[in-house]
Design goal:
The protein contains 18 helices and 12 strands. With 409 residues, the chain is α/β, with parallel strands linked by helices. β1, α1 and β2 form a beta-alpha-beta unit. The longest helix has 24 residues. The radius of gyration is 25 Å and the shape is elongated.
Amino acid sequence: MEFGRRGSYRHDVPLQLEGIRVVDLTSVVMGPYATQILADLGADVIVIEDRNGDTNRSMGTGSSPGLSGVSLNLMRNKRSVGLDIKSPDGYAVLQQLVATADAFVTNLRPGSRQRAGVTYGDIQSMRPDIVYCAAAGFPADGPRADDPAYDDVVQAASGMGDLARRAGLPVSVSPTIMADKLSGMAMAQAITAALFHRLRTGDGADLTMAMTEVVRSFVLVEHGAGRILHPPVGDAGYPRVLDPGRRPQPTVDGYISVLPYERHHYEALFRVAGREDLAVDGRLATRASRLEHSPQLYQDVAAIIATRTTAEWMDVLPRVGVPCTPIATLEEMIDELDLAEHPEAGMYRVVPPIVAPFVSADAVVRRPAPLHGQHGREVLAEVGYTEIEIQALTTSGTLFQTPREPPTR
């Protein structure tokens, strides 16, 4: 594995969740992203996959069947068990696994959890001090608790479309799976906090992470604005952030994002542009005044930025302390990532963990993303099944593994 180009990893910090076992009954992005974070921190994450395998295995292209570019990172540091938990023998295996686990994560809806026998009560009966976390679209105590909820639906229900409208844009949602990933980060945080609480008290936890609540909390940090007060003292929405002028500015040959924020930022920008008249403008005097006049100031900045090339601005603005950056493309960001080699899929780029400063570079990918059901025999042996019992489960189809296919490179 090749590391070192990014230069942000620490080599002297142990993995914080080493020794913690997580049984992962999730799929797609939200749950798998949460457990990727836990796995990156050292947790032993055991993914229970049905016969179809996790959806993220086929999200986008890949060089090996069942290992898309998405799954190579989302599934890293985990072990996969292909298991039919609907069968009595498969459910018995699940019970054995949970009995050895510290946390259990699922994204089944309430009705499906009930039918599958994986409610909090069911799982707690297998491990009394379990940290249980259910991913949901809507609050468990609300009328939509059992409704299906995908990222676009959650974004719309959480105000993202309205933010676009207020910013003068077509009503739309963010062009990234934002709700899933935000909620996955919140799940990982909640599970980690619950594990710490259990360490202090011995008590497990019953957690439900509703995506709409997570994203609404995220949105309303600043966009609650004056309507947070009761009675309201102003409108919802933070005006500066919603201003249509708050966007990357075109230069002579491309785009650049320039954000003068404090008074000295504006003064420096206007002076290097030869606009002394704007540098002494009364609109810059106070933060309140700058906020009040932000639409006009954005226009002034955009008109100035349009007069030079991106390279010319990137040469001068950092030297005078004005916050700025060229627009990074997806290709540029991906090409900067470190490389690792997967035994089936070949070389691939490693998306850095969000806790990168706290883990050793050599530990980022301790285990490559598993094939579908790759670790069933290994994991069952660890929890007490004999080779004869494992073979019987395999013969009956309760335990399964997708046959290895030659990679297509």
